UniProtKB/TrEMBL annotation:
This is SAM-dependent methyltransferase. InterPro entries: Methyltransf_25, SAM-dependent_MTases_sf. Residues 1-21 are annotated as: Disordered. The keyword Transferase applies. GO terms for molecular function: methyltransferase activity. It comes from the Bacteria. Coiled coil: none annotated.
C-alpha cells in the first residue's frame, strides 16, 4: 500500500515546545506520519489472520490507526498509551460523531497494568507497533512493558514486536543520523543503527519464545519538504536533538538531509524496510 501524500500547513518553532505545539506534534503524527506504517500493520494482521476471534492488546497504541484496522477485521481491541495527546486523537477518531461505524475498541491512558481489571481479557494477541532499533535506549523499557502485558494474555498467545530494518535498507536512516550528530556532544539520546537481534533481545527479556519473523516495505512519502520535516519530528526521534540544540537548528539540518530524497515534483520519497518478530507466551 502506497502512503498518501499529505499537504503541509506551517507551524511555529521554539526550543521548548509549548502545550499547543505538543498537541500539534501529536496531530502531525496522526495526520502525516502514522499512515506510513500501515503496510506493517496489514502484513502482520494478514499473516496472523486477525479477525472476530482476536482479542488484541495494543501497547503504545498512539492515535489508534493500527487499532482501527484490526477492529475493521472484526477483532476486539484494547489500546494503552502514556501519550495523552495521541490518545486524545485516537478517541476523537473513534467517536460516533466522527461518522465512522462503531468499532469494538477500548482506549486507556497508562501502561498494560491499567487494563488489568478490565473484562476484555484474557488477550490472545499483544502488539508493540512502535518500532525500536533506531534511537539509543529505545528498547530498554519495552521488555518490562511486554512482560507486564503477557500477564494479561492466554498461554501460547502471540506477541508481535516491531523494529527498523537494516540501515542500508532504510533510506530514512541517513536523515535520522542528524539526531545522533546533534546529541553526540551530550552523549545521550540520538540515533543509533538498528541491530540484528534487537527484537529477539526484547523477547528474551519478556520470557517469550520466538516463532517467526518478517520484513515489510514501508516507504515514507510526503507531499513536500515541510510535510516531511513535520512528520519526522512527530516521531519523537529528534526530541533529544532539540534539547541539545534548538528547534530551528534541528529543522534546518533535517531539511538538508532530506534534499537527497526530494523528487522533481517537490515530493519527498524514502524507501524503508521494517522488521517484525512473532513470539509466543509460554
Amino acid at each position: 500500500m502506497t502512503p498518501t501524500l499529505v499537504q503541509h500547513r506551517p507551524h511555529a518553532s521554539s526550543t521548548s515546545p509549548s502545550p499547543a505545539e505538543t498537541c500539534a506534534r501529536a496531530r502531525d503524527w496522526a495526520e502525516i506520519q502514522e499512515r506510513m506504517l500501515v503496510p506493517l500493520y496489514e502484513a502482520v494482521y494478514e499473516r496472523l489472520e486477525v479477525g472476530s476471534g482476536t482479542r488484541l492488546l495494543g501497547l503504545d497504541c498512539g492515535s489508534g490507526l493500527a487499532l482501527l484496522i484490526a477492529a475493521a477485521r472484526g477483532a476486539r481491541v484494547t489500546g494503552v498509551d502514556t501519550d495523552r495527546e495521541r490518545l486524545a486523537l485516537a478517541r476523537e477518531r473513534m467517536a460516533p460523531e466522527a461518522g465512522a461505524p462503531p468499532r469494538d475498541v477500548e482506549l486507556t491512558e497508562g501502561h498494560a497494568a491499567a487494563v488489568a481489571d478490565a473484562e476484555r481479557g484474557p488477550y490472545n494477541l499483544i502488539t508493540a507497533f512502535q518500532p525500536i532499533g533506531c534511537a539509543a535506549g529505545d528498547s530498554e523499557g519495552l521488555g518490562p512493558a511486554v512482560a507486564a502485558a503477557v500477564e494479561l494474555a492466554e498461554r501460547g498467545s502471540v506477541v508481535v514486536l516491531t523494529g527498523w530494518g537494516p540501515p542500508e535498507r532504510c533510506a530514512t536512516s541517513g536523515v535520522l543520523r542528524v539526531a545522533g550528530r546533534l546529541t553526540e556532544r551530550l552523549r545521550t539520546g540520538g540515533w543509533r543503527p538498528a541491530l540484528r537481534d534487537d527484537l529477539e533481545d526484547v523477547a528474551a527479556q519478556a520470557g517469550l519464545k520466538p516463532d517467526g519473523s518478517g520484513r515489510v516495505a514501508c516507504p515514507f512519502g510526503y507531499a513536500d519538504m515541510e510535510s516531511a520535516v513535520r512528520g519526522l519530528l512527530s516521531t519523537g526521534l529528534y526530541a533529544a536533538a532539540v534539547r541539545a540544540t534548538d528547534q530551528l537548528q534541528v529543522e534546518k539540518e533535517i531539511r538538508e538531509a532530506l534534499h537527497a530524497h526530494r523528487r522533481r515534483d517537490g515530493t519527498v520519497w524514502m524507501p524503508n524496510v521494517f522488521r517484525y518478530l512473532i513470539a509466543r507466551t509460554r
